[in-house]
Amino acid sequence: MNYLDVVVIGAGQAGLSAAYHLRRGGLEPGRDFVVLDHAPRPGGAWQFRWPSLTYGKVHGMHALPGMELTGADEGRPSSEVIGAYFARYEERFGLRVHRPVDVGAVREGEGGRLLVESSEGTYATRALINATGTWDRPFWPRYPGQETFRGRQLHTADYPGPAEFAGQRVIVVGGGASGTQHLMEIAEVAADTTWVTRREPVWREGPFGEAEGRAAVALVEERVRRGLPPQSVVSVTGLPLNDAIRRARERGILDRLPMFDRITPTGVAWDDRGAVDADVILWATGFRAAIDHLAPLRLREPGGGIRVDGTRAERDERVHLVGYGPSASTIGANRAGRVAVRDISRLLEREPDPVAA
């Protein structure tokens, strides 16, 4: 059994931010806290992004606390740029991330500690910072006939870039930023593309400043306060109407159709508008929070989400969720890491450690 003050699960933006603030607060990696990451290398979810998502196409990447990201080549894949940046960050601050380590469950232990069961052993911790993000839980909607489709189905999580779709008929499902990016790329090489979304896309024109950002985050935060599963910030901000989007709309690439009623062996069909044949259905339908390992703690509300106050789970003050709901953006993750460490420091000062005693 490894006894620690804090375990951080996940080494993406939120997890590294939390680890930085733990270190800054006087806690030592290995002695007082540990960061567990299941990914094979630094970079968080960014390391799995498709090659055509270059750094110049990334929206709102905010630097980690204490170290700016400067001089990055905007033409390089974001997976390479941000992966290298995270690696330098871990090294500079001596965060000593353990990887690859899978966490199977977090349970109640003895003496007020939580037991973090992982592939490298069990940690008994006084507090937990969960920074597992969403990448590991792609959301696949279910539609009648889905299993009969003879073509290929894949999710954004498996998107390889546009080259694989050359000469094919592709249906892109989803009205978020990833869906529009995939569609515009694929349209350049595919025989035909069809865009399908559940709701009419909302396009946002004009500047999006700090006030607008705060208002959008507040809407996401309200859902989390009510114990509902969080939605993405993009779901309440709309999609930015930039020059690339305008050109795609003029060319008819972003002519949206409502959701189909069923999937057929050769494509999709609507009850009131016929059918479209396809070789590929690409589900750009988002992700859900990867928090199944917290299930033994019974933190979920009847609405399906975890209610949090700041970053603290309301059902257990030892558990903090960063990069969850309103803190899912890169700048939000930085702030959440700082807030979580501040609250945990107060908890550690207030509650005596029976092991140390």
Q: What features would you describe in this structure?
A:
This protein has 7 helices and 18 strands. It is α/β, with parallel strands linked by helices and 357 residues long. The strands form 4 sheets. Strands 1, 2, 3, 4, 5, 16, 17 and 18 form an 8-stranded mixed beta sheet that branches. A 5-stranded parallel beta sheet has the order 6-15-7-8-11, covered by helices on one side. Strand 1 (2-9), helix 1 and strand 2 (33-36) form a beta-alpha-beta unit. Helix 1 (13-24) crosses helix 7 (330-350). The radius of gyration is 22 Å and the shape is globular. The two termini are 17 Å apart. The mean pLDDT is 91.
What can be said about this structure in brief?
24% of the residues lie in helices and 22% in strands. It has helices at residues 13-24, 78-92, 177-187, 210-225, 234-237, 243-250, 330-350, and strands at 2-9, 33-36, 103-108, 114-118, 121-130, 152-155, 169-173, 192-197, 203-204, 239-240, 256-258, 262-264, 267-270, 274-277, 280-283, 308-309, 312-313, 316-321.
SSE arrangement:
Blueprint: E1 2-9, H1 13-24, E2 33-36, H2 78-92, E3 103-108, E4 114-118, E5 121-130, E6 152-155, E7 169-173, H3 177-187, E8 192-197, E9 203-204, H4 210-225, H5 234-237, E10 239-240, H6 243-250, E11 256-258, E12 262-264, E13 267-270, E14 274-277, E15 280-283, E16 308-309, E17 312-313, E18 316-321, H7 330-350
Parallel strand pairs: 1-2, 1-5, 5-18, 6-15, 7-8, 7-15, 8-11, 9-10
Antiparallel strand pairs: 3-4, 4-5, 12-13, 13-14, 16-17, 17-18
Helix pairs in contact: 1-7
